[in-house]
Amino acid sequence: MAHSFSYTHYDLDMQRSGMVIEITLSAVANVRLMSHANFDLFRNARQHKFIGGVAKQSPIRLKIPQSGHWHVVVDMEGLPGKAESSIKLVPQAPQKPAPRFGAA
């Protein structure tokens, strides 16, 4: 069984934990960041888990919680109109090592 609403799908392929995805929208829309397994459930109109929800501002940023194959879906389920969208990976600043203090 497929969804009765249309959606835009972005296959992010393999991503590292902590990577940030920036989603730019032209209108209020639902944004779902899902693992590969949850995207399969979503695609088959089954119960699934995701990060995100109704995005009332743009752009929004979502962080990949664990390394793996990820997907972003933008849809208008329950919302009026249509939204154009684009996504990009936001490079993270390298982590600075914490300063070390030796015993005096």
Sum up the overall morphology in one term: elongated
How many beta-strand segments?
7
Give, in spatial order, the strands making up the sheet with the most strands.
1-6-3-4
The DSSP helix count reads 1
Query: Which consecutive residue ranges, at least 5 long each, have pLDDT under 50?
Result: none
Overall pLDDT, averaged? 89
Strand content: 35-45%
Following the backbone from N to C, one meets helices and strands in this order, namely EEEHEEEE
For the sheet with most strands, the description reads: 4 strands, antiparallel
Number of domains: 1
Distance between the termini: 69 Å
Helix/strand structural class: mainly beta
Q: What is the helix content? A: under 10%
Write down the Rg: 17 Å
Descriptive labels:
7 strands, mainly beta, 3-stranded antiparallel sheet, 4-stranded antiparallel sheet, single chain
Account of the protein in words:
The protein is mainly beta and 104 residues long. The chain has one domain (7-90). 8% of the residues lie in helices and 43% in strands. The chain has one helix spanning 36-43; strands at residues 7-15, 20-25, 29-35, 51-55, 60-63, 68-75, 85-90. It has a four-stranded antiparallel β-sheet with strand order 1-6-3-4. It has a three-stranded antiparallel β-sheet with strand order 5-2-7, with no helix packed on it. The radius of gyration is 17 Å and the shape is elongated. It starts with 6 loop residues before the first strand and ends in a 14-residue tail after the last strand.
